[in-house]
Design brief:
Aspartate Aminotransferase, domain 2, Aspartate Aminotransferase, domain 1, 15 strands, four-stranded mixed sheet, 455 residues, binds pyridoxal-5'-phosphate, alpha/beta, 2 domains
C-alpha cells in the first residue's frame, strides 16, 4: 500500500527461516553474558536474542528469522523499525535530542499533544501530560485523580496490571510475586472482580457478571469500606491485558461510567496495551462508546520509543505549575516517532488491525475446534488470546500446556507470549499481513498438536 509520504507496510523477508539449532552459538553466548550481569527479576521464557528486525520479522545474531507475534509486548505498533518512523527519529536526532518539556517548549511535543487531545474518546477540550512509560503514566493519572477530586480512595480490578512502580503496583491485582517483599502497598486502594465472560463466578439467578461487579462496588465497597464521596477514581482496562486478554461484556464499561457519574468518581481508562489502534479502533473504549475522564497510553504510542501519556478533560487536568513534571517525559525523539506512528495508524494500520485481527480470530477458532485443550479464543482486532484448559467443561486453567506451547512455537520460529493464568496472546505489529498470520497460526496449531500428543 503506498501513500505519498510513506509505504504503509514495508517489505519483509519470509519467516520463519531457521538456519541452525536455536539458540545458535552467538545467541547462546549473549544469553550467558546476560545471565551473569543482568538482574534476575526479568521473566524471559525462551532465549530469543534479537540482532535486527523489520515489520514482524526478527533476525537473531546467528541469522535465524522468527515471525513475531509479540511486537515487543504489544509495543511496535508500526512494526519493527518502520522506515517512516526511523526517518522521523533520524530527522529529529539531527535537530536536537533533549531539552525537557518540563522547563522549555518544542514543536514535536506540542504537535503530538494537539493530535492526541483530538484523538481521545472524550469530546470537548483535552490536555496531555507526557511520561516515559506506562507505569509512569498510571502514576500521573493516580496523582491527577487525587489532586482533582480532593479524594483519596481508588478502586481497581483483580487481574489488572498497571505497572511496577509503587502506585501502579498497588493498583495492579495481578500476581502476588509482583508485591512479595515490597509491602506495604499504597493505601486506600480496593480491588473488585473484573467481569470475565469465560470464567463466570457463582451468581445468584438474577445476576449477570456485570451486575455482580457493580453490586460488589455499590453494596460491599461503598457500604462496608468507603463511602463513594471519598473515592477519587476507578482505574479500569477496557480489555484486561496481562490478566489474559479478557474482553468484558459490552454493557460493562457503559454501566461503570454511569456508576462513576452518579458518585462524582473519575473513570480512568488504562489503554496502555489496548490503545493506539490495536483493537481496530484508536482506543478500545470506543467500541462501546464510553468517554472516560482520563485515558492512559504508552506501549504502541511511539512504536518502540519510550513514551507514555495521559489525556484528560481540560477541566480535570487543571493542576498548578510544579504539581507534576518529568525530565524526559515527552522527549522530542520519542514524540517524533509517535507523530510518525500516528500518521501510519490513521493512514491505514488501524483498518489493517481490524481486518487481519478478524482473520486471526477465525483461524484460531478453527484450531480450537480441533483441540479440546483450547477452551477459549477471544479478543478484538490484534489483541487476541487462546486460553488453555485442563478440560473444556471445567474451564480449569492449564498453564503447563500453555507454557509448553509457547516453547514449541519458539523452537519452530514463532515468537509468542503468555498472558493471564493459561492463555497465549497474539499481539503482533499492526502491519501484520493475513499471510503472516496464516503461517503463525499454522505453526501454533502444529505446536499445540505436538504438546497435546506428548501429554
Ligand atoms: C495495561 C497496562 N498498563 C500499564 C502497563 C505498564 O507499562 P510499562 O511496562 O511501560 O510501565 C502495562 C504493561 O504491560 C499494561 O499492560
Amino acid at each position: 500500500m503506498a501513500n505519498s509520504k510513506f509505504v504503509l507496510i514495508p517489505k519483509q523477508p519470509s519467516a520463519p527461516e531457521l538456519v541452525c539449532k536455536i539458540p545458535g552459538p552467538k545467541a547462546r553466548k549473549l544469553v550467558a553474558r546476560d545471565k551473569k550481569v543482568m538482574s534476575p527479576s526479568y521473566t524471559r521464557d525462551y532465549p530469543l536474542v534479537i540482532d535486527n528486525a523489520i515489520g514482524s520479522v526478527v533476525t537473531d545474531p546467528d541469522g535465524n528469522r522468527f515471525l513475531d507475534m509479540t511486537a515487543g509486548i504489544a509495543v511496535t505498533a508500526a512494526g519493527h523499525s518502520h522506515p517512516y518512523v526511523v526517518r522521523a527519529i533520524r530527522d529529529q536526532t539531527a535537530r536536537f535530542l533533549h531539552m525537557s518539556g518540563t522547563d522549555f517548549y518544542y514543536d514535536q511535543e506540542i504537535m503530538l499533544a494537539e493530535r492526541l487531545a483530538k484523538l481521545t474518546p472524550m469530546s470537548g477540550r483535552n490536555r496531555v501530560f507526557f511520561t516515559n512509560s506506562g507505569a509512569e503514566a498510571i502514576e500521573a493519572a493516580f496523582k491527577l485523580a487525587r489532586h482533582q477530586t480532593g479524594r483519596q480512595h481508588v478502586i481497581s480490578f483483580w487481574g489488572a496490571f498497571h505497572g511496577r512502580t509503587f502506585g501502579a503496583m498497588s493498583l495492579s491485582g495481578s500476581k502476588a510475586i509482583h508485591r512479595k517483599r515490597f509491602l506495604p502497598v499504597v493505601p486506600q486502594i480496593t480491588h473488585v472482580t473484573y467481569p470475565d465472560p469465560f470464567r463466570p463466578i457463582d451468581l445468584r439467578e438474577s445476576d449477570s457478571i456485570v451486575d455482580f461487579t457493580l453490586d460488589e462496588i455499590e453494596q460491599t465497597v461503598f457500604r462496608r469500606e468507603v463511602e463513594p464521596d471519598e473515592v477519587a477514581a476507578i482505574f479500569v482496562e477496557a480489555i484486561q491485558g496481562e490478566g489474559g486478554y479478557i474482553v468484558p461484556p459490552l454493557d460493562f464499561l457503559p454501566r461503570l461510567r454511569d456508576l462513576c457519574d452518579r458518585h462524582g468518581i473519575l473513570m480512568v481508562c488504562d489503554e496502555v496495551q489496548s490503545g493506539m489502534g490495536r483493537t481496530g479502533k484508536m482506543w478500545a473504549v470506543q467500541h462501546v462508546g464510553v468517554q472516560p475522564d482520563i485515558v492512559v497510553s504508552a506501549k504502541g504510542i511511539a512504536s518502540g520509543m519510550p513514551l507514555g501519556a495521559i489525556i484528560a478533560r481540560e477541566e480535570i487536568m487543571n493542576w498548578p505549575p510544579g504539581s507534576h513534571a518529568s525530565t524526559y517525559g515527552g522527549n522530542p525523539v520519542a514524540c517524533a516517532a509517535s507523530l510518525a506512528t500516528l500518521d501510519l495508524l490513521e493512514g491505514g494500520l488501524i483498518d489493517n488491525a481490524k481486518v487481519v485481527g478478524a482473520h486471526l480470530i477465525e483461524r484460531l477458532q478453527a484450531v480450537k475446534e480441533e483441540f479440546s485443550a483450547i477452551g477459549d479464543v477471544r479478543g478484538v482486532g490484534l489483541m487476541v488470546a487462546a486460553d488453555f484448559v485442563t478440560d473444556p467443561k471445567s474451564r480449569c486453567h492449564d498453564p503447563e500446556t500453555r507454557n509448553r506451547v509457547v516453547q514449541e512455537c519458539f523452537r519452530r520460529g514463532v515468537l509468542m507470549l503468555g498472558c493471564g493464568e493459561s492463555a497465549v496472546r497474539f499481539c503482533p505489529a499492526l502491519t501484520i499481513s493475513k499471510k503472516q498470520i496464516d503461517v503463525a497460526v499454522g505453526i501454533f496449531r502444529d505446536a499445540v498438536a505436538t504438546v497435546v500428543k506428548k501429554s
